[in-house]
């Protein structure tokens, strides 16, 4: 394997003030020697710069330069008070982003602070108005968060990647998130490394964007997994048969050993959606139609309130549902059930209501359909919420999917009907609607059958990861279980020394036995963090390789959805002049520093003198 080239990094730039960025990231330009004097740092890094500094040519140029200006000015250090002022400005910029404040508020905040804290030299000398605040975010703190992430990856063997597209007006934005395992920082870590717009959603455009980003950051060789939603563009279907997918192209242009992971939250969402299509009533359509009928009409809402009062029901605003949201259908259906009698009376009393709503509330079995789907939705609602936890491992996901599959199988075998639904059915039989009840029962069982079959089909993609089950550390680890895992990793280019691993397993099992009470209620991630933190590297080197691979596998695509929610909250009508670079800066700071409070961020940034020096540089505000 060829030796990795050294780069002219921020660390070298801050240490060697007489050099600036060269034509490529593998060279630097000397500020003393004539323009165009480039020094390659690809082979020896800082040693190449030292060799140039000691050369006779450079010394002659430095001597000439000293006759014009004092060379010590290149090494001028900011005073302690100046550093504290810059730290305060950086912390205030972070505070603005962290609490979703507008940049224009910073035209006032420093002036106000100077008046309130009139005895503080720091407050008096801060000049962090909106332009400077945005520059600090976009050009310093945001890129710094990516640099810190890339630096961290140098000590970590692998990472996984997730992405998805989101529209903002005519723009199609794609963030790139990476997941890796760093036990020193608390285990599973998720970071944003890029946000760009691309002209279309073809697999060629997406895969090129991802591979170009990874190569630019020089981390492509460590990418071992790709996760996205379950479209054919991303994954090529559950059989992975489509050769034109992003996943297939990443295997060709990034790493042939990349594994693909479907988003389990999307799988569960699509499962219940697929099952609901087998019912005789389109309840999703009813939910959306009801919401739209009342959402912007005050007169209709006031009339409904009167009907709620008449039937002795508390009025509550109807909830919206969209086809792409994972959790919205369950509470929306329940809200309709809470006001069902009022809604039924309202629409049946109208002279010309929407036909679809009139037919729905006229039908005798409508309420039974609502209660039955609500009963099943509760299972999916709880498990999708469980899936979306940020530090879930792939085994946690597999256990959740198997739990849902087991519940569906039990309901199918027993033809389960909830008590609320049975009450409606019993009443319908008494009123002479027995044939409709029988038809409903067939559809109710069909709902379970369709959901169970769909979930089984789409869960196939997770079978390859069953060999990692032992890593949940719920019981003593046996070498025969680990050997299966070693074979899996070997096929994907990760070499594990089985002899060392066998010895380290003994140490791990001793740890599990001694700490069984403390570990009982901990997550899989937390158990491994505690183990690695309490043992020496020679006791866990091979286990750490496996853990870094295992926890780099993204368990879901929910973190990308969180990114989209953040973008929507920032890019509002009040901030419609933001461009993609500004949104990227906001995202990098908000997401990558999410583990820090404002006060913790200040304590962190005040120790970063290189970053604080950049804040003083006028180059960042042009």
Description of the molecule:
Mean pLDDT is 88; it is low at 68-76. The protein has helices at residues 10-15, 46-53, 56-68, 80-98, 109-116, 121-125, 130-153, 203-216, 232-235, 246-253, 264-276, 283-294, 298-310, 329-338, 340-349, 355-362, 366-387, 394-414, 419-430, 434-458, 479-491, 498-514, 516-519, 524-534, 537-552, 558-570, 580-592, 598-605, 609-616, and strands at residues 19-21, 27-30, 38-40, 159-163, 166-168, 171-182, 187-197, 223-228, 259-262. It folds into four domains: 10-75, no CATH class; 80-263 and 557-622, Nucleotidyltransferase, domain 5, CATH 3.30.420; 268-460, no CATH class; 473-552, no CATH class. The chain is 58% helix and 8% strand. It is built from 29 helices and nine strands. It has 622 residues and is α+β, with helices and mostly antiparallel strands. The longest helix is centred in the C-terminal third of the chain and has 25 residues, at 434-458. Helix 17 (366-387) packs antiparallel against helix 18 (394-414) and helix 17 (366-387) packs antiparallel against helix 19.
């Amino acid at each position: 394997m060829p030796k990795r080239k050294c780069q002219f990094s921020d660390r070298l730039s801050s240490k060697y003030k007489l050099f600036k960025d060269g034509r490529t990231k593998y060279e630097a330009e000397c500020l003393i020697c004539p323009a165009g004097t480039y020094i390659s740092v690809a082979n020896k890094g800082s040693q190449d710069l030292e060799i140039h500094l000691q050369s006779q040519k450079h010394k002659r140029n430095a001597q000439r330069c000293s006759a014009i200006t004092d060379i010590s000015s290149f090494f001028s250090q900011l005073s302690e008070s100046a550093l504290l002022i810059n730290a305060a400005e950086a912390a205030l910029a972070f505070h603005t982003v962290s609490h979703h404040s507008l940049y224009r508020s910073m035209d006032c905040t420093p002036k106000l602070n100077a008046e309130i804290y009139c005895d503080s030299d720091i407050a008096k000398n801060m000049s962090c108005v909106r332009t400077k605040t945005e520059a600090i975010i976009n050009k310093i703190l945001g890129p710094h968060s990516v640099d810190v992430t890339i630096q961290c990856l140098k000590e970590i063997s692998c990472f996984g990647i997730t992405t998805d597209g989101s529209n903002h007006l005519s723009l199609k934005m794609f963030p790139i998130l990476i997941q890796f395992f760093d036990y020193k920082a608390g285990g599973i870590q998720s970071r944003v490394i890029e946000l760009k717009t691309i002209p279309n959603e073809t697999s060629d455009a997406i895969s090129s964007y991802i591979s170009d980003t990874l190569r630019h950051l020089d981390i492509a060789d460590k990418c071992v997994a790709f996760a996205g939603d379950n479209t054919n563009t991303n994954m090529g279907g559950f059989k992975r048969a489509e050769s034109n997918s992003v996943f297939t192209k990443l295997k060709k242009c990034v790493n042939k050993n990349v594994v693909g992971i479907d988003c389990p939250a999307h799988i569960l969402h699509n499962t219940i959606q697929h099952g609901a299509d087998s019912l005789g009533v389109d309840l999703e359509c009813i939910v959306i139609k009801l919401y739209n009928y009342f959402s912007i009409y005050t007169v209709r809402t006031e009339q409904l309130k009167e009907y709620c009062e008449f039937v002795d029901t508390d009025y509550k605003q109807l909830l919206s549902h969209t086809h792409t949201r994972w959790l919205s259908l369950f509470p929306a259906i329940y809200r309709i059930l809470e006001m069902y009698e009022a809604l039924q009376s309202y629409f049946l009393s109208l002279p010309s209501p929407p036909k679809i709503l009139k037919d729905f509330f006229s039908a005798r079995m409508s309420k039974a359909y609502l209660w039955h789907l609500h009963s099943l939705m509760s299972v999916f609602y709880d498990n999708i919420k469980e899936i979306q936890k940020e530090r879930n491992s792939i085994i946690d996901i597999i256990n959740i999917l198997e739990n849902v599959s087991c519940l569906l199988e039990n309901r199918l075998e027993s033809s389960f009907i909830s008590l609320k639904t049975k009450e409606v059915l019993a009443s319908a039989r008494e009123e002479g609607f027995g044939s409709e009840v029988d038809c409903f029962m067939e559809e109710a069982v069909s709902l379970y059958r369709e959901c169970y079959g769909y979930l089984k089909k789409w869960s196939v993609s997770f079978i390859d990861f069953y060999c990692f089950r032992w890593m949940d550390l719920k019981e003593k680890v046996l070498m025969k279980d680990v050997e299966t895992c070693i074979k899996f990793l070997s096929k994907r280019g990760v070499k594990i020394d089985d002899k060392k691993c066998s010895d380290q397993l003994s140490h791990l099992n001793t740890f599990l036995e001694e700490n069984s009470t403390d570990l009982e209620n901990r997550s899989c991630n937390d158990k491994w963090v505690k183990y690695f933190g309490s043992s020496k590297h020679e006791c866990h080197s091979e286990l750490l390789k496996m853990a870094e691979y295992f926890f780099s596998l993204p368990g879901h695509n929910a973190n990308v959805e969180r990114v989209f929610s953040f973008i929507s909250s920032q890019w509002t009508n009040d901030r419609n002049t933001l461009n993609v670079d500004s949104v990227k800066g906001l995202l990098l700071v908000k997401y990558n520093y999410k583990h820090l409070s404002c006060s913790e961020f200040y304590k962190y940034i005040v120790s970063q003198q290189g970053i604080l020096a950049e804040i003083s540089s006028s180059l960042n505000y042009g």
